[in-house]
Design goal:
- The protein has 443 residues and is an alpha/beta fold.
- It has two domains: 175 residues, Aspartate Aminotransferase, domain 1; 252 residues, Type I PLP-dependent aspartate aminotransferase-like (Major domain) (Aspartate Aminotransferase, domain 2), CATH 3.40.640.10.
- A seven-stranded mixed sheet has the order 4-10-9-8-7-5-6, sandwiched between helices. A four-stranded antiparallel sheet has the order 13-14-17-16, covered by helices on one side. It has a two-stranded antiparallel ribbon with strand order 1-2.
- It is globular and about 75 Å long.
- The two termini are 39 Å apart.
- Bound molecules: pyridoxal-5'-phosphate (PLP).
- The site of pyridoxal-5'-phosphate has 15 residues, from helix 5.
């Protein structure tokens, strides 16, 4: 996979081509009918986007941290809570049956988003972080030993690094890190060198949350498999922007979060091949995940329930399912096309600003822009932009080793989503000009 448009598991199905009818919550018209991208109609579905911040229209450019939720998701969660709430799986009464159906229906729509025909391959978690921890604990403790290798990269989010450090502490396995080029891509020659160590697993981000780099995950997976390693892809920054094609990527594990793809917080998913899930021991023990419990010992439920101990975040999962359906109805190609337009425009505009240093590649990237601006501290930049209603993020973005790699402690990061407008790029650039003025010019 190289460019976003190629990366989308494009169906070419826009809202107008889908069967009509369906859930009354979905609301009429999502803004992508008949191949049109009606930005105003799309934005109207996100109530928060019409609010003001500090007397200015909100320009929400912090989507890599968390995206906003459309009415469809908010309404679906509310309907679940108002009309359908009960605990799932265990009850025989009507509400429990409805809650269970809503929960399992969400699993089907999240499975469709991930690109698997088997919903049992979707384990609901608290998010990408917990999905990686699940694999590191369950699969790692069972199948990784002292001296085994795990290959990561220097651009991993802490979520796809610290769980492996903890595994290394427990087992004595060795962690190896693929280098990142000055241009912000993975050094695949270095990767090949590390594969000579015959690691047990390669765990790599699909899209860098700091650099925006779209990694060639298919190639990475193929090379890893050829070297005998399993593969985990951190899809937190990819799943919001494209329909994931786990079969096409060929990976063994894929992790993603609801709250970065128009869904609620505190929920996400691990996709894994069913045979792997079947042979992995439980991650946590408790209710829901057992088949039988005796004082002498217990046996486990089938996958995926074996990995979902305790009462899950039912309303969150229901919202997650609706978010996945919402993205599918907007259409992956339409989403990618608008985001590509924003990306090119932002790249050009930011590239013209003297003293602004943009990290990450020009090609093969998403609309996530990390930058420094002269010697203005990223936190100061963020504060000044906030005064104009522009929400960006400043800091290490849970990428401290990557920041070390570039010899910096922080960047400012503006990250776009399909509901952002070209005017918000203007607002960002105007805000940066104002910051330069406040600081008396750019050093
Ligand atoms: N991986 C990447 C690439 C991310 O960008 C993030 C969050 O920013 C995570 C993992 C962690 O996601 P969550 O906090 O939803 O578990």
């Amino acid at each position: 996979m190289t460019e976003m448009t190629e990366a989308t598991r494009a169906t070419g199905v826009l809202a107008s081509n889908r069967p009509s009818g369906g859930d009354a919550d979905t609301g009429a018209g999502d803004g992508a009918e008949a191949g049109r991208w009606d930005l105003e109609a799309i934005r109207a579905q996100f109530p928060i986007l019409s609010r003001e911040v500090n007397g200015h229209p909100l320009a929400y450019l912090d989507n890599a941290a968390s995206s906003q939720q459309p009415l469809r998701v908010l309404n679906r969660v509310e309907r679940y809570l108002r009309e359908q709430h009960a605990n799932v799986h265990r009850g025989v009464h009507q509400l429990s049956a409805e809650a269970t159906e809503a929960y399992e229906d969400a699993r089907r729509s999240v499975a469709a988003h991930a690109g698997t025909a088997d919903p049992a391959e979707i384990v609901f978690t608290r998010g990408t972080t917990e999905a990686v921890n699940l694999v590191a604990s369950s699969w790692g403790d069972a199948f990784v030993g002292a001296g085994d290798g795990i290959v990561l990269t220097k651009m991993e989010h802490h979520s796809n690094l610290v769980p492996w450090q903890l595994l290394a502490d427990r087992t004595g396995c060795d962690l190896h890190f693929v280098d990142v080029t000055p241009g912000g891509t993975l050094d695949l020659d270095d990767f090949d060198r590390l594969l000579e160590k015959r690691p047990r697993l390669v765990a790599c981000t699909h899209v860098s949350n700091s650099l925006g780099t779209l990694n060639p995950v298919r190639e990475i997976v193929d090379r890893a498999h050829a070297a005998g390693a399993l593969t985990l892809i951190d899809g937190a920054q990819a799943a919001p922007h494209m329909l994931t094609d786990v079969a096409g990527i060929g990976c063994d594990f894929y992790a993603f979060s609801s709250h970065k793809m128009c869904g609620p917080t505190g929920v996400g998913a691990l996709w894994a091949r069913r045979e792997l899930l079947a042979e992995m021991p439980p991650y946590q023990g408790g209710g829901e995940m057992i088949s039988e419990v005796r004082l002498e010992g217990s046996s486990w439920a089938q996958v995926p329930h074996k990995f979902e101990a305790g009462t899950p975040n039912i309303s969150g999962v229901v919202g997650f399912g609706e978010a996945a359906r919402f993205l599918a109805d907007l259409g992956p190609e339409a989403i990618a096309s608008h985001e590509n337009t924003l990306k090119s425009a932002a790249l050009n505009r930011l590239g013209e600003i003297e003293g602004l240093h943009l990290y990450g590649p020009r090609e093969g990237r998403t609309a996530v822009f990390s930058f420094t601006y002269g010697d203005i501290h990223p936190h100061d930049l963020s504060t000044i932009l906030d005064q104009r209603g522009i929400a960006i993020r400043a800091g290490h973005h849970c990428n401290q080793p990557l920041m070390d790699h570039y010899g910096i402690s922080a960047t400012a990061r503006a990250s776009f989503y399909f509901y952002n407008s070209p005017e918000e790029i203007d607002a960002l650039c105007d805000g940066l000009a104002m910051a330069a003025e406040v600081f008396g010019g750019i050093a």
